[in-house]
Amino acid sequence: MPEIFKKRIIELLKHADYEPAKLPQLAKALGVSSQNYPAFKLAFDQLRQAGHVVIGAGNLISLPSLAGQIVGTFRANPKGFGFVTPLEPSAHGDLFIPPKATANAMTGDIVAVKITQKGKRAGQMRCSGEIIEVLERAQNRLVGTLLKEPQGWLVQPDGSSFVEPISVDDVTAKGARQKDKVVIEILSYPTEKYLARGVIIEVLGKAGRYDSEIKSIIHQFHLPTDFDDACLEQARAAAAEFAPQHPRTREDVTGKVIITIDPPDAKDFDDAISLEKDSKGDWTLGVHIADVSFFVPQNSPLDAEAKNRGNSVYLPGKTFPMLPEVLSNGICSLQPDQKRFVKSVYLTYDRHGNVLSRRFANSIMCSTQRLTYQQADRTLKGHTKGIRPEVIELLKDMETLSRAIEKRRAENGMIHLDLPETELVMDKSGRVVDAHPADTSYPHTIIEMFMVEANEAVASLLDRLNIPFIRRIHPEPDALSMKNLAQLVRGFGYHLPRNPDRTAIQDLLAAVKDKDCSFAVNLAVLRSFEKAQYAPLHIGHFALASTHYCHFTSPIRRYADLLVHRNLECHLQSRLDLANDISAGLDLAEIGKHITFTEQRAEDAEDELTTVLILQMLSDKIGEELDCVVTGLTNFGVFAQSRKLGIDGLIRLTDLGPDEWKFNTSAHCIIGHRSGHTIRLGQPLKVFIVSVNVPARQLNLAPVKPLVKAPMQQSKSKPRKKKRKSKS
């Protein structure tokens, strides 16, 4: 448990605006409750004993100063220089490594650095160094595009991590051709005079083709794909033995009206909804979740594989499931007119959406109808063709209850961010031909509200029973992040108190709704929050304003939910002793760390492939215009995001117009020195596509019209004065 607090303490102390404080002030800045203070204090003590934090005069806490030599992780810049992030956090942050001091290091390498210079820049201490040794190479295999150049065959690595091409020999050994996507193994690393050398070990296909790009993503992110024989054999046996006609001790709810609502291309339906109203006007919501734990026993081959994968990976046009499809798309999926085993959460509400009671059961159900979100939305708007009458009535009741729950949760402080997502339109070959904003119709909110309520109900039960379990936690944002947020939104003309609570953040988001700055403010709020993660630590979920929270509703695609199902099963069997035995045999903190990593890996892989596919489309549209909004400001340019495509591009300062542009960090804007013209986050910009570099994942943009006019040029020669004629 202390690991979560260790990370939060270090992040706060690394913050550029942090000023040394005492331990109680530190706890307050991180929003540590009295209940969690002992764990926080233990984490701090362990950091201090390890030398990661120091207590100075006046009991003020800070990170240690840099010694003469440090060890850290190197990241290269295309311009030849780089930075090293110390493995042991220090008060001075990352070290700058000049171009001639990188010692052949590549991005991700663990290196030893000698500090050569210390000084202040922009009011903050900055250190430079020289890499004296590469201690550990990050990887010796890369994916890239094979190119024939005058100096020989080169492979340009995919992504922005490795900027220099790699020389390869004997390309014919694997039958590789010009512009093939290949996997290479590095034989020798780059020097000041020579490029790295490698050998092709696999040809993935022609660069730019969908199948080749998918294979590239698999290699880059080390995504698990095929299941081994033991897993497949176990899955097939489970399917063959499935006997829904003999439900044993399960409640039979096959006669109820129960529906699923999912995206059009979904196949793994793991949640279904029923809803009934009694004579007193109270609602009983049934959230029915696929009982995956019935088919995947603990410590079985499938369990080990699911734990390793952590979650399903959803890429544009391709899915890598956590479980074999005979389970994920078969006997576990809540398909219409098929009897399925589920774990049911029954929540009784009054007409205001307040929970009156909770009940849990093992059930057998049969889905009445499968709907897409778009079908559900059309039905609620009166277009009911093809929808059963009882389903129409159910949908209307679901909307009524959802709005009551949403209102109650908002009043309790739930924060909703308005950050539109993009949906790609692909042809049969996998190429992106268009994109549009993803569907955000109200049925999405209906399902979200019901899932959140079920997750919360299960977590509350397990807490009451004192059963250790994997939670979904979202820490309260630290005070310095909130201070920076307040400064940023002040530039938009909005006010946030010094220590904003959830209500203040809700009011800010409501104030910017439908304004030009809405996207930028919502993005800034998101960036000021910590990421949600999996851990056994009981610190609640800040954004949902929930004290007890876990993931329970998607066990087909998330291992965390599968673990929680097993905890719930112990309660349903009245075997709490078994629950504690199960938890005792698991390192929940380590599992939480691992599945948080696999979740982030899946998101990164999806983002990477989405970027590649959009850039491929834009490479044929050089010169075309895009409607964008400013999403980032730096000392070298402006990042602007296409409203339609959701992809960021860079506008270099020199392309903004004839002026001397400077980034003002305190005012959060870029200012033209001569004209006084300012560029701020959230500002709309009409731009055109200057260039696209797919391997480097770069999109370069420029304003359609310069933002300022060129100054009037004065004549260099002074005008001559006319001689006056003398009066005669």
Biggest sheet overview: 5 strands, mixed, barrel
Q: Could you report the average pLDDT, rounded to the nearest whole number?
A: 90
State the oligomer. single chain
Spatial ordering of strands, largest sheet: 3-4-5-7-6
Would you kindly provide a brief summary of this structure?
By secondary structure, this protein is α+β, with helices and mostly antiparallel strands.
Task: Describe the secondary structure blueprint for this structure.
Elements (H helix, E strand, L loop, with lengths): L1 H13 L8 H7 L7 H13 L4 E2 L5 E2 L6 E8 L5 E5 L8 E3 L12 E12 L2 E13 L4 E9 L2 E6 L8 E3 L11 E9 L7 E11 L3 H12 L7 H13 L9 E2 L6 E4 L8 E7 L5 E8 L10 H9 L3 E3 L2 E3 L4 H7 L7 E11 L5 E12 L2 E4 H8 L8 H23 L10 E5 L5 E6 L4 H23 L6 E3 L5 H12 L11 H11 L5 H11 L4 E3 L23 H14 L3 H9 L3 H31 L6 E9 L3 E6 L5 E5 L8 E4 L4 E4 L5 E3 L3 E10 L4 E6 L25
Parallel strand pairs: 5-7, 10-12, 13-20, 14-21, 28-33
Antiparallel strand pairs: 1-2, 3-4, 3-6, 4-5, 6-7, 8-9, 8-11, 9-10, 11-12, 15-16, 16-19, 17-18, 19-20, 22-23, 24-25, 26-27, 26-32, 27-28, 29-30, 30-31, 32-33
Helix pairs in contact: 1-3, 4-16, 5-7, 9-10, 11-13, 14-15
Describe the fold and architecture.
Helices cover 30% and strands 28% of the residues. The longest helix has 31 residues, at 588-618. The chain is an alpha+beta fold and 728 residues long. It is globular, with a radius of gyration of 29 Å. Residues 721-728 have low confidence and may be disordered.
Identify the notable features of this structure and list them briefly.
single chain; about 725 residues; alpha+beta; 16 helices
